[in-house]
Write a structure and sequence with these properties.
By secondary structure, the chain is mainly alpha-helical. It has a domain of 33 residues. The protein contains 3 helices and no strands. The relative contact order is 0.06. The mean pLDDT is 86.
C-alpha cells in the first residue's frame, strides 16, 4: 500500500543508518521498525530471560559490600589527587 508520511529528520537519519548497516532499503528498514514497535505495543514481544550462573567467587568475598568498597577506593583516590595539588 502506498501512502505519504512525514518523518522527522532525526528519525529519517536513524532509519537511513539502519538501512545502511543492514544492507536493506529504506522502505524495509521503515517497515521492520514499525512492525517491531507495533508488536511491542500489542504485547507480542518475547519476554527477556537471563539464565543465572555461578560467579565462582572465592570464600570471604561479600558482594553486598561492593558499593562500600568502591566508595572507599574512590575516597582514597580523591584524597591522593588532592595531596598531589599541594
Amino acid at each position: 500500500m502506498r501512502t505519504t508520511v512525514t518523518i522527522d529528520p532525526d528519525l529519517a537519519a536513524r532509519l537511513r543508518r539502519i538501512a545502511y548497516e543492514r544492507g536493506i532499503s529504506f522502505k524495509e528498514a521503515l517497515n521492520d521498525t514499525l512492525r517491531a514497535g507495533l508488536g511491542a505495543e500489542a504485547g507480542t514481544a518475547r519476554p527477556y530471560r537471563l539464565r543465572a550462573r555461578r560467579l565462582g567467587l572465592r570464600p570471604g568475598i561479600e558482594l553486598d559490600k561492593a558499593l562500600r568498597l568502591a566508595s572507599a577506593l574512590e575516597d582514597e583516590e580523591t584524597l591522593r589527587k588532592l595531596e598531589l595539588r599541594k
